[in-house]
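User: Sequence in, structure out. Go.
Assistant: Echoing your sequence, followed by the structure tokens.
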Amino acid sequence: DHVVDISAGSSFSLAIRSDGSVVGWGRNDVYQLGLNEDTFGNGKTTDNPDTLNRYAPVYLENGSGVLKALEVSAGNEHAVALTMDGTVKMWGRYWLYNYWYISGKYYYNKDVYQTYTEPVAVVDADGGIVDNVISVAASLNTDHALKADGTVWSWGSYVYGERGDGLYRGR
């Protein structure tokens, strides 16, 4: 059993073993490893967020067992996997956009995130599962899927036009 694909995000890494199982290690404070942990991991409850981290590879699960994939790609604090059936799973935290507001005489800024605590299927605007995917790529806060028909699907932040659809705000 050996590694056939690997990707590194911001302080976390993912790999696919020869049997297709996805493993991850490193930082997991915003579900980068998709572990859906609420006990602060490593088998004990503690107030120390450092124990969320995994110092050795752990298997990722998808609700019905170990997540199996053909390809993984890690973004800043999130990741995507191309599964064996040509669909895509995503997990972790996506930064969508930042806005400013005034309260009294002070200015404040607020970051807006979307977090997926465990691997979930990528769906289209109508709620249908995106399928027939042949490759995936994660960037800082945006992901892309190449479908067999040559179309590219993108989701996540588009503050800087990273989706390539002519738009430039989080939605």
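User: And one key feature?
Assistant: The two ends are 42 Å apart (CA to CA).
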